[in-house]
Fold:
Amino acid sequence: MKRVVVIGGGAAGLMAAVSAAEHGAAVTILEKMATVGRKLLITGKGRCNVTNIADIPALIKNIPGNGSFLYSSFHLFNNREMISFLAEQGVETKVERGGRVFPVSDKARDVVQAFLQALARAEVVIKTSQTVTEILVQEGRIYGVVTVDQQIHKCDAAILATGGSSYPGTGSSGDGYVMAKKVGHTVVPLKPSLVPLEVSEEWIQELQGLSLKNVTATLMFKGKRLEAEFGEMLFTHYGLSGPIILSLSKKVSELLLKNEDNEVLLEIDLKPALSEEKLDSRIMRDFEKFSRRQIGNSLHELLPSKLIPVIIDLAFLDPEKPVNQISKVERQRLLQQLKHLTFTITATRPISEAIVTAGGISVKEINPGTMASKVVQGLYLAGEVIDIDGYTGGFNLQAAFSTGYVAGRSAAT
Structure:
């Protein structure tokens, strides 16, 4: 029976351990935190967006960071099999907007409990508060790992599933990259992905906490429209967050890194369902309806109250001016702000605040069909520690589960 050590008890590590044990290995998980599954507990705002029902081509399309590398993993263990795995542990799931899959209970803890149940049944040994500091290699083959207390855990294979550098409080502090480098792996430079954005506009603080639905955010650079996302967003005291902002953040991060002297802009269309002509007609109807009111008190059917004074100010309108005195030119300025509310992006939030880390162990040094290292025999890699990253919507977790499953199966056989 092969001895397999799984380094890290996150999504990829837990699935790798289950898979290795089910394929006949004696498995031990070494987790640095006091409990396993810490990051799983906070995903999907505590509800755990476990996967997405998209087909494999769509899954790959939604993982812009080396998604094609996951082709084999997704065929060996896909979203349907993940849903079946949870069902076998008594966790029923449901599908929500955008194909997102959640436990029916809306409790991430149920997903972690499902893994603990499967691990117990497979007789996997879980050792917590065990920080691995080094992978031991002799003549190109792994023979064990060392923990911070200098204890050596001998093994026939090890699976490195330590996560990225985001949310260090959950255990993902980037130590896996250090260990991989020590044994000869290349680590692609890290940058935040799925991360909030900071803006230069100081008035953003007036909108702190305001959430918007059904808006379109468009990334602008050198006068060109690069990418756009439709959905929900959130204003914070430092800038912008929410699903559509996070989805654009990887591209923003790349632009800021390569083009320090050029402005990166983000344009919000507050009324994407309406053309400018139709929106103008809508504004005129509201103006007729509230013709005796001041402009500052006439937009409540069009905008959230928190946003009204900001839009009026940006359109250079007097909030006390009666609606029936607003000129066509002034109305056009208002319309332009509604369709083109623009922000200057100055930075992404730190990588520690990112949901996902972009960069990591180079996929060129990993066999995509087995997740085996091409550098060290007996070493396998899974999850966010690899240079893969996707959009929000369950894609990153499915990548973790799929690579974990394949790594575990390969390590055991």
User: Anything to note?
Assistant: The first helix runs from residue 11 to 22. Residues 3-191+355-412 form a domain with the FAD/NAD(P)-binding domain fold (CATH 3.50.50.60).
